[in-house]
Amino acid sequence: LRGGETRVGVENMFGLMDRFLKSDPSSLQKDILDHVEYTVARSRFSFDDFEAYQALAHSVRDRLIERWHDTQLHFKKKDPKRIYFLSMEFLMGRSLSNSAINLGIRDQYADALKELGFEFEVLAEQEGDAALGNGGLARLSACQMDSLATMDYPAWGYGLRYQYGLFRQVILDGYQHEQPDYWLNFGNPWEIERVHVTYPVKFYGTVEDENFNGGKRKVWLPGETVEAVAYDNPIPGHGTRNTITLRLWAAKPSDQIDMESYNTGDYINAVVNRQRAETISSVLFPDDRSYQGKELRLKQQYFFVSASLQDIIRRFKDSHSNFDDFHEKVALQLNDTHPSLAIAEVMRVLVDEEHLDWNRAWDIVCKIFSFTTHTVLPEGLEKVPVDLLESLLPRHLQIIYDINFDYIEELKKKIGLDYDRLSRMSIVEDGAIKSIRMANLAIVCSHTVNGVSRVHSELLKTRVFKDFYELWPHKFDYKTNGVTQRRWIVVSNPSLSALISKWLGTEAWIRDVDLLAGLQEQAANADLHEEWRMVRKVNKMRLAEYIEAMSGVKVSVSAMFDVQIKRIHEYKRQLLNILGIVHRYDCIKNMEKSDRTKVVPRVCIIGGKAAPGYEIARKIIKLCNAVAEKINNDPDVGDLLKLVFIPDYNVSVAELVIPGADLSQHISTAGHEASGTGSMKFLMNGCLLLATEDGSTVEIIEEIGKDNMFLFGAKMHEVPALREKGPALKVPLQFARVVRMVRDGYFGFQDYFESLCDKVEGGNDFYLLGYDFQSYLEAQAAADKAFVDQEKWTRMSILSTAGSGRFSSDRTIEEYAEKTWGIEPCRCPF
Ligand code: PLP
Predict the structure, then answer these.
(1) What does the pLDDT look like over 310-343, one tens digit per residue?
(2) Residue 786, beta-bridge partner list
(3) Which helix H or strand E contains 620, and what residues bound it?
(4) Residue to probe by mutation, ligand 1, list 567, 569, 675, most atoms within 8 Å of CB
(5) Alpha-carbon separation of residue 818 from 157, 375, 822 (angstroms)
(6) CA distance 793 to 778
């Protein structure tokens, strides 16, 4: 009955809406049981929690698909300008609760399941995380997809469907071990395999000149072809029918591979070679800051860029006969430099395959690309060795050289023959290893270069991309990152969500997060305080249960839960946190027993993964566990201090930990965190921040005020001069003492920790742990003092949530849509 455009016409089709799947409890029950029987192939009289989860997921998916089809049809009919968000990483986490909530049918499902003898929350726990990304950048992509859908923007996300997501972290004897995350083992109901949406992606080979229209043209004769197959993940908006697509590509062997071997009878080798193609999308690189010069990485980048562009251009050509309107219909967003080969690829397709004149193609390229950089340090910028590019993508290297030639000629006219500057600004870097600077390519060819917070943007203009800013000030802008309140309050903290709706008298804040500011008026209300504390206590109990189940450590919920969860990095300074804990422990041990009653009990929680090859980060994890072992088994300290390392930090762990945190630490050395988004999630959940003035924290301070957080540390502008001082930099005695405790083997593993201690002493303290230690301890003392006054603490907590509205990804996306992409909402009619 649900005819497509051809049979009943789009308008009529919307008239048939009452034929959509019903969502009353008995229809839902029937649906779930049907999926148990026909999809999961279990008897409806005997199935376990996991099978119930699978059936439930398929039932939600059916409803997603309906909306998704309607949205795509609507976009097709309206043909609006679309934003294509290209990202190598999407950290989506689980989908069930988020989808059911965004579809507005979570409670109906919960009721339906209850009668069948199942709990919605318990089934939701059965789902594994989709961890196709490393950290902040990847979770940002996921939050932005949610906002794009909710705000009705005609958007597509494009990425890679890695078979192995980010490694699972297992802690054995306190050390990190990595285990592969084969997340597809038990199937993935949230994706739809599109066997008919496949594109060939070419690699290697040679470029030849061919006669064409009386002139010459370049023809790329590839040496290998791999097939890209689309897997679509529908992303539902909240309070709208709009459901957009995250299209992830998987590599499959192409029929074009190695026909030679088949023909010569080497059947076995031909098949084995075919399987090799699949490795392209098999594994996510587990480093979150640098990816230098790896062939597989470059192959992944081009694979996803090429497939995505073939798809985008095919969609455009479906309804346009030439490229005149391309820039009016297509906006391409580069999430960091990782997809920037897209620039050369668009040029190649337009010039070599669509036979546009070079200048016309260049004109189009300059209008469609925007680039967001997440980098702070020039050393972190991605470079691709020319040799590698030449062998893998010979035609692209030629195109990049041609772009660079024209650009440098133009540049000479503008800045003269300043060879130093010309060489700094060139896309091609000469040197021991001749390389392509991907950031320079992205900047030259994009109409906008965005930073991810205001201070980050300043750093870009004054340091990292200073030369470019001076040339093209109009290109540089910033959009402070944000996170979605749907996932980070509504899904992860349902009791706080209900409380907010009750006190605001509306649920409208879920789509219009500025309304949270309404809580400010109630920040001193005693009734709200009581309810607020109750919600927080229940969340802490949930977290305490998890901690005990995971580590065997019993913690008291009346203690302050002090959390630092994020990737382990020297600049994020987990080591400062651990040394602060050692100091606290040392103080308690050396205190008169009678004074111990004054100590504010703490549960310190640290979690995060270290990149497998990052030795210092691995040692920080081991130190945390060694210190925890000592403290948690010291009866002298008891409940006054506990330390737990939460293994395998991921989105689901974050959803559990963040609502239960009282205090959270964002303590990077000033000038090193481009934005930081973890802090925003804690803020939304009424957690107080202990932070340095770095990245987006600077803007958080403006929203909620210095008095409502605990700030410390050297300021960004002070850092270079402090570093200059080297060994002459004064550090407090307490710092020397705690480092000595570690050095002397107080926590064991003396030899293993030696290099860690060396990193922060004797003039090597690049991240200024020693210099900042005193003010860090003072900020911690201020947090203790505030915690004792629960009324004050609760008011600060309410004001944190009330002031978090600006840090919603809805605001970020609106700014991108208006100022960078030039797109309008395109809402699917109800
Ligand atoms: N990893 C995960 C799983 C997250 O949810 C977040 C939150 O934004 C991050 C990493 C980034 O955290 P931060 O911005 O604190 O480094």
Answers:
(1) 999 999 999 999 999 999 999 999 999 999 999 9
(2) none
(3) helix 615-632
(4) 567
(5) 18, 24, 5
(6) 17
